Amino acid sequence: MNNLIVMKFGGSSVANTEKIINVANRVTEKARKNHIVVVVSAPGDMTDDLIDRAKSITESPDPREMDMLLATGEIQSIALLSMAIKSKGFDAISLTGPQAGIHANNVHTKAKIRKIRPKKILEELKKNKIVIVAGFQGLNSNDDFATLGRGGSDLTAVALAAALKAKECEIYTDVKGVYTTDPRLISEAKKLDKISYDEMLELAGVGSQVMMSRSIEVAKKYNVNIHVRSTFSNEKGTIITKEVSQMEDVVVSGVAFDKNESKVSITDVPDRPGIAANIFGALSGKNINVDMIIQSAAREKYNDISFTVSKNDLKNAVSILKNISNKLNAGPVIYDENVAKVSIVGIGMRSHPGVAAKMFKIFSDEDINIQMISTSEIKISCIISSKDTDRAVKILHKKFGLG
Amino acid sequence: MNNLIVMKFGGSSVANTEKIINVANRVTEKARKNHIVVVVSAPGDMTDDLIDRAKSITESPDPREMDMLLATGEIQSIALLSMAIKSKGFDAISLTGPQAGIHANNVHTKAKIRKIRPKKILEELKKNKIVIVAGFQGLNSNDDFATLGRGGSDLTAVALAAALKAKECEIYTDVKGVYTTDPRLISEAKKLDKISYDEMLELAGVGSQVMMSRSIEVAKKYNVNIHVRSTFSNEKGTIITKEVSQMEDVVVSGVAFDKNESKVSITDVPDRPGIAANIFGALSGKNINVDMIIQSAAREKYNDISFTVSKNDLKNAVSILKNISNKLNAGPVIYDENVAKVSIVGIGMRSHPGVAAKMFKIFSDEDINIQMISTSEIKISCIISSKDTDRAVKILHKKFGLG
User: Fold this and answer.
1) Which of A30, A113, B109, B388 has its Cα between 20 and 30 A from that of B225?
2) ipTM, 2 decimals?
3) In sequence order, what E strands does A92-216 have?
4) How many CB pairs under 8 A join A and B?
5) Per-residue pLDDT tens digits for B334-353
6) Mind listing the pLDDT tens digit for each residue in A135-175?
7) Chain B: residue nearest A144 by CA?
8) Model confidence, pTM
9) Residue B21: its chain A contacts at CB < 8 A?
10) Segment holding B306, helix H or strand E
11) Which residues 231-260 of chain B have a CB within 8 Å of chain A?
12) Do A65 and B94 touch (CB under 8 A)?
């Protein structure tokens, strides 16, 4: 649809009446010249509160029922925002994820979007209504609510922008855009005007809190322009878009870190085909995302296999590995929660050799021990001890000239 | 379905974790020998809190959006209760009103049930699951949530009991059953073992808080046995059922009162055909329920028309009447909020003449002024000044031998 903008507001932007009215003002300003689809998250801490509530009833709540429970948060937001917009004399309608035609798969609490059938949204837009869609939720093939997991509302927004061919997808948040590193940690951090999907993907993958990588992937695939900006100011934020040539002049565009990682190793694994598939198959079967993987060079037919998972998944991962270790007659499973991942990202790396070497030299000069390394074309990540994180980020930001 | 019981729990029964676990215990006890459908309301004061929240945003929230908002309360209850039941090793599934096949009409916030298509419920019962249905909500023909208004969860329960041919519909509440009058007011009030639909209808119509008349009407129509009982004890409550002959031996079975009434009069209305239709058509067009109606005997071609509405509807009713009064060149509209309705109910009245006369005599002996009177076959109601309510109820309860 022509002249359509998708605007997404997170939970902190709709946490109370005053904030909801502020969002209504932002939306209606823009609605004078554009068709608008708004995507909202649950108000404030409601999702966490509901999870706590469920866990007060039983330690492991049924996932289908958890989704039934969590879906109510976003539904409250859309209803309240729609009331606020209508009370300002604009026509609006709220739609649950299912009503908006968002179809998800059947993995409760971590569902993926299967397809979007935006018939109802288009009908309402054609009636000149502002359409307000509940983020984070879809309908699965059992006709049940399925929630999309962390970052789910961003995903809803980007996927809708793609399906509706919106001219822009605005992600309103409590920061002003994407920074060269975390501005709460490093005061010299600078806001970027533009960043490529690939760089943003690498940043997201290494713990930049602004957006989850799954949303960026969808944006890249469907070429959706994302504008990350502040709910509380009219300042321009950061555009996430496809790569443009002058971007390559900047070698490194950001330093990111993630303190939510933990390192797990299974030791003395017999060196024969199929073992890795066995281990990582079991983990993915439980929906545990594995990040960096390192397999030590074989010594006398035995390997150590190490990898990182998020701290939330650590307990499950360890118990799965212990099981596998028993079956394979492998050695003990060891793990370490006191690690962090520090990464540098930049599409310029592709044409500027020696960036990795420079990073390792900086760490070595600072006496920071590197435990694991992984690299991609435009990113280098190191696992280090979590106590060194802040120092590592600061020195990298400085030495790569981002200040 | 054979051996099926519908159990309905109100908001105070699921207000917190402890209470939800208590309800799960009651349900699973009964589930050993019966198929069970549970209907629940929103937890505690959530519905009122959500209404307040909406009104903090705009004075007159859009009704469709209000229903979208309010539907979340019951959905939270069904999800949490289902988790609690599953954690006890029983299989259960929660269903929203729409999922349960409850179809409503399009009057938002006061919808009526159009029909029930219990296919999904029956499928799940056949898998030996305890089915937990969100009360108070259905799906309207726009595929939107529609809420059923006050007492809506009772209505859901009774209508499901009828559609599923349940052997009983248990209404769990914070009182032990139906009493001869309000036990909070009169310590001599007695719990009734049985009461007929008609008596219960009259009691409900005159403000007995136990159940709303719309649910009783459905129960009567489909011959559903209702068992009103306490959530917090195993004691038998009161069975609401079809009339049995020995019931007639008791002349008056209950005294009820309603302090939520207000009296409105439109004065000096021209006495010509169509005027009443005009007035009450306008009120029902705004979904305002009118209770007692009195038209004074015509004096010189002008009438006074008085009626009672609930205090909530008073403001709207008065503004509609003022409009009509202007159009008809009638006199001023006057109203009084300081009134109450006191009623005696009993199927025995039909065969025992003089009950009304006795009631009026009792009031006159007590110097209680009667402002309006209405009677049915098994009920006599009087509007009196609200300050006299407690005294009137006590003396009627005593003089009709209910203590």
Assistant:
1) B109
2) 0.79
3) 92-95, 102-104, 113-116, 130-134, 137-139, 145-147, 168-173, 194-196
4) 101
5) 999 999 999 999 887 877 77
6) 999 999 999 999 999 889 999 999 999 999 999 999 999 88
7) B99
8) 0.81
9) 57
10) strand B302-310
11) none
12) yes
